[in-house]
Amino acid sequence: MLLRCCLAVALMTAAAACSSHSRGAVPAGTTDPDKFLFDKGTEALNDKKWLNAREFFKQVTETYTASPFRPDAKLGIGDTYLGEGTAEALVLAINEYREFLTFYPTNRRADYAQFKLGMAHFRQMRAAQRDQTETREAIKEFEAFITRYADSELMPEVKTKYREARDRLSESDYLVGYFYFRQRWYPGAIVRLKALLKDDPEYTGRDAVFYHLAEALARTRKEAEALPYFEQLVQEFEQSEYLPLAQKRITELKTQVAVKPTGG
Question: Considering the entire predicted model, what is its pTM?
């Protein structure tokens, strides 16, 4: 029994020594150990060795609290979680980026933290047919970036991701409107599709919105109101699959609108 206890203690000591070696692998006489650890973390991060990179960065943030590399190491930790990409890791990434913005709101890389915060939500967005909570969170964080960091070099990339997130949310709304259209509940489709165009006039799939909104209006005997939406589709989308249908309906509706007063 005593032998087993001694063996267990020896194994635990050896494991602790290995762990200590991996976390404290700073060569003796190193002038700037915080920089050494940060550089090692950055190298591991670039090699996508997420766990190793995280250990190096954590040594900087936990051991060298006054180090000028501490803010960047904090971001590095977030980047390892973002790179890892699991559901659990993305939640931890969000926490790291939020803490960075709380502790270092005026840091030169605050824009980067805000962008990556948005990306951590972006990476969790679900298909348009499913819950859009994370899509809304991504949009919120990207909008915060656009408001706060107008001169950031990251702005073009942020705007691209922002548009993708807005398109996902608008696609979700469109699918609801299209469902109403398919069910022939045209008033519901009209309300939903009009709201979509008001909320997101730059939605890249709005040709489908124009077509089904116009068709829903036409089928509820609102030809004069439907016509401008068909015409807008033709003016804005030269390659749309709905283009031939819209052109045909424009001709038909113009005839109906012209004849309607006489018939009345």
Answer: 0.85
